[in-house]
Specification:
heterodimer; A: mainly alpha; 4 helices; 0% strand; elongated; disordered C terminus; B: Arc Repressor Mutant, subunit A
Chain lengths: 76, 193
């Protein structure tokens, strides 16, 4: 039986945003649909390329915290 | 000591009541995700830091003046503020005259997401590095959805709100972003697993 799962549904499934029924169907039929796997693997690769955290430097964070504290002190 | 994570809306409420620690918790919870998204959108660490600081100054001001009414939707709200600043920055930079170095190269090409920052020095995977570069070469609208989904981890529904569009438009842009990345991959013959 051929299941008409669209790329949009696979995309939503990958990001845990699809309906439970579609999610369940994909999981059940994934092994029988190598194209789906290929696409999901590609999505994972793209996601992995964005996995690095760019962190703001500590001085910047301190400045923001000072700003938030200054607000509080003014209100006292 | 409480181990349950306190919701963003509760932290903001505590902050308005004078609890500075609550704001610190909120900032530390979201700072990397917000900063990563800004950096990925503008491609320049220094500009990203400016926008990050301005974003939080605006956030503090809005909370202080009672303008925050998003309950627990802090991150999409913060991303919307920073996203508007990023768009302004990108448009402003496009209007700048091109300044070249002694070899005739646009100096703005030397500043960006590929500058060797501390986070990137340990990266050895060429395929992922190239993908990251090509993400920057996507059209602005497509890159934005990709960044907000993958860096900020917003849902497509939240992205639609941040970008003043609808969910179908966001999903469409994501599809095109993925298609274009695939084309760049094939064109450059880099095998992506």
């Amino acid at each position: 039986m051929i299941y008409n799962i669209t790329k949009t549904e696979l995309l939503m499934y990958f990001y845990n945003e699809c309906s439970p029924s579609v999610s369940q169907l994909i999981e059940m039929e994934l092994d029988a649909n190598p194209d789906w796997k290929t696409y999901l693997n590609y999505l994972e690769t793209v996601q992995n390329s964005t996995k690095i955290d760019f962190k703001p430097n500590d001085t910047l964070v301190s400045m923001i915290l000072e700003e938030s504290a200054a607000t509080e002190h003014q209100s006292l | 000591m409480a181990t349950t994570m306190i919701a963003d809306g509760v932290l903001i409420k505590h902050y308005t009541e004078g609890n500075q620690g609550a704001f610190e918790t909120l900032l530390k919870r979201h700072k990397n995700r917000i900063f990563s998204s800004i950096y990925a959108l503008v491609g320049d660490r220094y500009i990203a830091e400016d926008i990050f600081q301005e974003t939080f100054i605006k956030i503090i001001h809005s909370i202080r003046t009672g303008k925050y009414n998003h309950e627990d939707k802090f991150l999409p709200w913060a991303m919307r503020i920073s996203r508007n600043m990023c768009i302004d920055s990108i448009r402003q930079r496009k209007r700048l005259p091109i300044v070249v170095d002694s070899e005739g190269n646009d100096i703005l090409n030397n500043i960006g997401i590929f500058e060797k920052s501390q986070e990137e020095l340990h990266i050895e995977n060429d395929e992922i590095t190239m993908l990251r570069k090509w993400i920057w070469e996507l059209p602005e609208e497509q890159r934005e959805v990709l960044v907000l989904r993958n860096y900020a981890d917003l849902s497509f529904k939240e992205i639609a709100v941040v970008t003043n569009t609808n969910i179908n438009t966001c999903i469409g842009r994501m599809h095109y972003a993925l298609i274009n990345l695939r084309k760049m991959t094939q064109k450059n013959s880099v095998r992506v697993k």
